[in-house]
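Worked Example 4.2. Consider the chain below.
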Amino acid sequence: MNDILNKNIHKSVSEMARFCGDSDIFSKDKEGKLPSRDVVTEILKDLRKVVFPGYFGDETLDSYAHFAEKMLGSVSEKLCSQIKLVIGGGDADKRAEEICTRFISALPEIQKLLEKDVRAMYDGDPAAHGTEEIISSYPGILAIFVYRLAHVLYAEKVPMIPRMMTEYAHSRTGIDINAGATIGEYFFIDHGTGIVIGETTVIGDRVKLYQGVTLGALSTRKGQGLSGVKRHPTIGNDVTVYSGASILGGETVVGDGAIIGGNAFITSSVPPRTKVIVKTPEHIFKTDAPEGNWEI
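Applying the procedure from the previous section yields the following structure tokens:
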């Protein structure tokens, strides 16, 4: 490198080092305190093999018990080490082991919930050729699988790791489910791209969401002042929300059996068994225009 480039590198590094020292964001020594995204991803992939045996590995039901015990032993070690990093404190080892123990104990129930989610997708999607196709390839079931695991850690107040988990699913599927949301049984996501489900959302049983649905906050102008406040909607049982609909606000309740049409914008409660349909806009058709002379 030439002298001018070397001098500019030195100048830039010196300026950035001073800024990091003065900033309350960059100045903290984060070594040994941040969980590894790679390890968190490994945990999810290992758990996927345990929850869906035979789909993402070579294990069979005959060898499942031996395989699963070995795999969960490895997962527990990885997860405990990552939890210890983020919770800190003198009793971090004990607290991390207690959280891991409760997490592992929750896996049988999570597996049962996911089996119901798969059935909901199969029953609700005429394009599905079998539950095997759903488990192995549908983005919706991957997003729900990750959410249900992350939600357990969120409920345990584990920092950062639940968000890392759901953001992994978000990056893979385009489906953004906050780990804090509460979601019932037989949850059906069709297509899924662009779905957003906020932290304080409550969703009942047998709910169907299509692509582009937002279950969000009405306003976030108060920023951190809204932390812990119910700011996302409540969706009742047996509700269907079609593509592009937005349902916003912590006081907004969509009643049981309601149907929300595509592109609807909802900021107030919807009574049970109600259909909300957006009026068809007026279309203007122009024909016989000279080639290359279309006007819109």
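Residues 92-124 form the longest helix (33 residues). The mean pLDDT is 92. Compare this with Example 4.1 before moving on.
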